[in-house]
Amino acid sequence: MRQLSTVDTMFMAIDTPDFPMHGMGIVFLDPSTAPQEVTFERIRELFAERVDYMGPFRRRLVTVPLGLDRPFWIHDEGFDLDHHLHHVAVPSPGSMDKLLALLNRIGNIPLDRDRPLWAAWFIEGLADGRLVLVLKAHHACIDGVGGLAMLGDLVDREPDPAPRPPAPPVELESMPTQGELALQAVAATIIRPVRTMRAVAGIARTILPGLLPQPRPDSSLDVVSDPAPQAPSPEAAPFNITTDERTHRNLAMTSFDLAEVKRVGKAHDGTVNDVFLSVVGGALRRYIATEHEPPTAPLRAAVPVNLRTGDEDDPSTNIITVVAALVRVDIDDPVERLDATVAATRKLKSASGERATENVLESAFDLMTPAAASLLSRAYVSLIADRVQLPFHLLLSNVPGPTEPWYVAGARIDAFHIQMMSFPGLGPIVVALSLGDRLYLSVTGTDEITPDVESVATALDDEMAALTAAVPA
Questions:
Q1: Angle between helices 258-267 and 453-470 in degrees, nearest 10
Q2: N- to C-terminal Cα distance for the chain?
Q3: Which of 72, 371, 399, 427 has an alpha carbon 20 to 30 Å from 160's alpha carbon atom?
Q4: Which residues are catalytic?
Q5: Could you tell me which of 157, 153, 159 has the C-alpha nearest to residue 38?
């Protein structure tokens, strides 16, 4: 039995029926590389062979009475693979629009908390002959980097690999009694004052430096983002409205030539991430300007930072913190925006220093019990979300993936996109994931807040084209 980390517990605590904290990996497969036909039965065989390598896929949640301490993961003695695997087809004529509609429906199906918190869909019927494998998992089980690591146990590096040795047998555990869990809660309550003091110290180390007066920028290239979030300008992002109703997630997808992204970044002494931030800034400027005045102030994005050292005993657990990055929607020229982004991220890295390794998320949620955190989350959504401005406008994530081809049941992975969770008051979530020679961008919005995410994806294409044309080869 393994206790959830503080950050994993946070994702369970803020999970609500209206705003579930699960995400989806959407893997497009080219079956022409497979030595045998790729069918649902073959995919089921693959999961049956590999699921024991994928620890979180065999664990289910056990909560502590009254939510007085962090929950536990326990190996599910009643684990049944068929409860997690699904087989569907894209309605005729098998277009991408039909697929996206199907993916959005799948993304809005909640996970069953009485079983391991994941599910998979094998999708056929695309007109171009490709297959799609969708893997949905709760954020408490997995983050972006950990998810890729675990997916590595399902995929192969060649289409017809040698058989893998069997995974070590799963050691089933007896379910703890309510009395045993209650004793665990009592022990946690005794040491809570120590955890609280440690949490307060961690928050102070991260936040206080950012509250000191900062010099005013002298130019558009001299705006610095600090890890300590400050209240953003509400008029800068009209999509940061809130709703206490159930949200319906929607997804849009595009991709860039990774070599071209690297070329453009290198030409301005920047990185892939700098180009990503800059292009998102231009796309959101276009999106906002369709119905509002062009923005005159930057947006503030929450950016997850991987804190793994490589020594963790469980690579799947969330080991992240969040820093703030400026998204320069206030700059129209793509080259000037890229230069401003490069300057800001360079200063961010310098200003962050060792503070970026301080997990402010963990510190904040260590101040309260899981029950209190859950009540606070629900109170925020139902009572005060429409009156409290979040410290961020949107969330951006850039996940480096493998450079070599990956295969599922012999079918080469042809594209890889991610649909993220949603959160009240937070605008679109844009994820970039590199795989092979492409950078895959996924935009997650909601029908209630950002209904036209496809226009954001189109704007991303337009901005990347404009930036490429403005930076000579």
A1: 50
A2: 55
A3: 399
A4: 139
A5: 159
